[in-house]
Amino acid sequence: METVVVMVAGLVDHDVAVRVWRDRPGSVLVRHVAAETCVRRWVDGVATDIDLLHGCASCTVREDLRELLAALKGHTVVLHLDPLLEPDAVRRKLGVDVECVITVLDAATWLDDALGDASMVSDQRTVAQVVVAQAEAADVLVLQGDADERTLAVLDRLAPGAHRCTPETVVVRKSTRPRLMPLTPECGVSTAVFTADRPFHPARLNDALDSLLDGTVVRSRGRLWVADEPDVALHLESAGCGLHVGEGGPLGGRTTQIVAITLGEPDSITAAFTEALLTDDELSFVDSIRKLAI
Prior knowledge:
The protein has helices at 16-23, 57-71, 87-94, 110-115, 127-136, 149-158, 202-208, 266-275, 280-293, and strands at residues 4-9, 28-34, 38-43, 46-51, 76-80, 98-106, 140-144, 163-165, 190-196, 217-224, 232-239, 242-250, 256-262. By secondary structure, it is an alpha/beta fold. A hairpin with a 7-residue loop joins strand 10 (217-224) and strand 11. Residues 189-277 form the CobW C-terminal domain.
């Protein structure tokens, strides 16, 4: 009999994990909270302090969860994640099948957090990177308080197919697949889509990235072809005013694709990245250099 895992995430205080646990007789409620010198773990309300491994709270939680899930094989485990943890990151590191990811958010403040540049106290991430990653991983979004239409339109694009409910009506439900992001503008929320079949100029690309950091973009993702990296694609990801660009594996097809959820003008984003592409003269020069190298 396989272990069933339900993850409950969220940066806000909530009792949703307890509600899910109570609604599933025989399930086990697990929660970890990091402290300065240890990690406190609760299993069905019984607390245990665990010494930090190498001074790393996340490493300690990960290793303890591996052992716990092995010991609880065949059970339903309701995993109340530490507020700072992102469900997809936990799922990848643990290598477990998850029946449902439930994310709890403050409907009144979530969008401001998702657009902002506030930093987390505990690590190098921004608050936006945490709350956006938690929301987009959700099969079920639990809204504490009333959300305005603009927030709901953003969530429709960030987590399409996710079921929305309140803490009192929470259910464990796998979202429908495939998740198709709406492309039609709604309540001032748009989806910018940029594609190109020529590489970026590295310096101009750096300038174009600023179009994603003006406080109107909730989330962007992309796979970039840059002229000085002819064999490697770069992976782009931003949330609010936090951005990361890193190696994304072999280039494969020589194309660029960027998708951004924005409350601003999508045309300004596509225009900025269009201006960052190599011109015809630059492209001819690069091609001639490559031929000489061969």
